[in-house]
Amino acid sequence: MNRLATTLPDSLARPSRLDPLGTLLTLAGALALLLLPFVIFKANRILPGDPRSLTAVLPAWGALAVAAPLVLAALVAVLVANAGLRLAAALLGIVAVALAAAAAANALTPVGNHVVRVGAGPAFWVLFVVLGLMATDAITRLRPRPGLRVLYLAVALGVTALALRHGTFDNLSVMREYAVNAARFAQEARRHLELALGSLAAAVIVGLPLGVVCHRAPGARSAVLGTLNVIQTIPAIALFGILMAPLGALAAAFPWIAELGIRGIGAAPAAVALFLYSLLPITANTVAGLRRVSRAAVDAARGMGMTDGQVLAQVELPLALPVILTGIRVVLVQNIGMVTVAALIGGGGLGTFVFQGIGQTAIDLVLLGAIPIVVLAFSAAVLLDALVELMDRGRA
Amino acid sequence: MITVEGLSKRYGTATVVDGVSMAVPRNAISIIVGTSGSGKSTLLRMINRLVEPTSGRVLIDGTDTRAQPAYLLRRRIGYVIQGHGLFPHRTVAENIATVPRLLGWEAGRIRARVAELLQVFQLDPAAYADAFPHQLSGGQQQRVGVARALAAEPALLLMDEPFGALDPIIRAKAQEDLLEIQRRFGTTILLVTHDMDEAFRLGSHVAVMSSGRLLQFDRPAVLLTRPADPLVARMTGASDRALKLLSLTTAGEAAVPGVCDGPQLAASASLREVLSELLWRGAAAATIVGDDGTLRGHLTVAAILARARP
């Protein structure tokens, strides 16, 4: 009785609970900003970097202009529960951090100098990740409909593209690397997508019928899925190596195959390896999707006079589609990442920049390859998640 | 008329249906009843060839069902299963339109038929045509399942435990509706159930199956009064067979001319219900009136009891 009387008003008096995630993110961001360098200055591309803090680079009013939105974001993160406000504050913070990096690069680069390199430092990346987490957390709480999520993505990508085209970030080191490699970048990006999407398409063309066969003939199921499972366990590099010998021998024995561009190294073994990796998720998800289809619906379909083909096309595949699409999503995101490794055997793609950058210890070149890969994989995941959810709607 | 001749189904050494022969009457409801594992569902599924017989044959209006491909045969036969089997990714209207579409009906005719069936099954087209099955109640789903089976106006309707998943009150309503539908369209219906009460309520003829064999196929009253096999007597319920017999006759059918001062009861009530009501009220006789209020005669307890004997 006594305890109740003392604790009740106390808990009522408390205005609102501190947001645990927001508090953690704020602490991490604040510590990073205070203790870690915001940008790294290099006199040229391969010299060791010279860390600079934000206040050392920007004039006082500039630092204040960056700090104000960040403080606002921190306050919202800790105190405000409204997800819409949290998202707005996080996005404001991200824009502020990005513009601060651009401003720092402009401030540190003498006009007309193309040798100096100014790259984003640890504090920038920590803030970027912290604010990104705050934004994704807010979007998760908002539960936007699939179409809206795709719109968010399109707006974010569109704004970024406009800023890049406008030259906002031209003095940042990654964009310096881009300026040098612009022609090759477009070519390698296209090759990257071709490899990822092409092997996915081939895997769907083969894996979908294979899944249907496995569903219809349970005897084949364990053999097929077992084989694909084994392939899945082979590391990517090892699989490239294994494919080198037979493809090389094939090209040597039949010159017309070599003329098609199929050799032991290059894009061919990469495409074959990605195709093989893609088969398991597609086939296994097709089997799982078909098994999920209600037996009563299939029985009714047959009982009303649908042919086997009609049952498959009109009942089984449409009902299995959300699960099959989930498999396609897994494969697409996995492929976009795995194509990177294809650069090792001359397969091309954005991984070329990553491995060149590693070879030259030029971290900016690595980022020129890595950042677009992450953006591609993330966008593919958002798009296909939305598609899966749309397909699954109305048929729970 | 469906004629079943020496129909058997064997899986390996197990005989599921064993030499069944029967002639199913046209334009009436016939019931196949039996315990689980008696082969009743397999027998039904052999008629539309979802299961191919090991031996024997099925004739529909004199034509062997194997004279055409199985899927073409099935498009002429309505089929309803337990748990309705509606397509979850298609709307109610699309579900009902399934067989007409397979048959290549033109769009206008399909629309008109779907609207007609929704009316018949008491589903407002404006509210339900574009709904998905999961948005309906269990009873509504079951009605859509029957409407879908009747869409292409089949002369024969096969039903495999169609009301098995319904609760008792909705089930009774669904049974009433089925009788009404049968009267309206004159469809020949063959229905499988394990529920003897359901069989007696719906069937003009009832087939009793056990261990793959057909024990007896006759009118319900004959099953009660002259069971062909001790098992038939046991399955129809020997302990209350007198009351079951009374439940097969309506008061209107049994009433004799004349009046009495007893309570007024409906002609559509069964003798069993009339007897129960008279016992409850301590009355010796009842006046029987039709739905329109006209006098149909009277019934005494003694007259009812006389009908409870074979």
Question: Please, could you describe this protein's structure?
Answer:
The complex is a heterodimer of chains A (396) and B (310). With 396 residues, chain A is mostly helical. Chain A folds into 2 domains: 16-143; 178-392, Orthogonal Bundle (MetI-like fold), CATH 1.10.3720.10. Chain A contains 16 helices and 3 strands. Chain A has helices spanning 2-13, 20-35, 54-57, 60-79, 83-108, 122-142, 146-166, 173-216, 218-233, 236-253, 255-259, 267-292, 295-303, 308-342, 351-359, 363-392, and strands at residues 39-42, 50-52, 117-120. Chain A has a 3-stranded antiparallel β-sheet with strand order 2-1-3. In chain A, helix 2 packs antiparallel against helix 4. Chain A is flat, with a radius of gyration of 26 Å. Chain B is α/β, with parallel strands linked by helices and 310 residues long. Chain B folds into 2 domains: 2-239, Rossmann fold (3-Layer(aba) Sandwich), CATH 3.40.50.300; 245-306, Alpha-Beta Complex (CBS domain Like). Chain B has 15 helices and 13 strands. Chain B has helices spanning 40-47, 70-75, 92-96, 98-102, 107-120, 125-128, 138-150, 168-185, 196-202, 220-225, 230-236, 241-247, 251-254, 271-281, 301-306, and strands spanning 2-11, 14-24, 29-34, 55-60, 63-64, 77-81, 156-160, 188-193, 205-210, 213-218, 264-266, 285-289, 295-300. In chain B, the strands form 3 sheets. In chain B, strands 6-7-8-3-9-10 form a 6-stranded mixed β-sheet, sandwiched between helices. Chain A binds chain B through residues 294, 296-297, 299-307, 310, 315, 318-319, 394-396, and chain B through 48, 50, 71-76, 79, 81-89, 98-99, 102, 132, 134, 145, 148-149, 158.
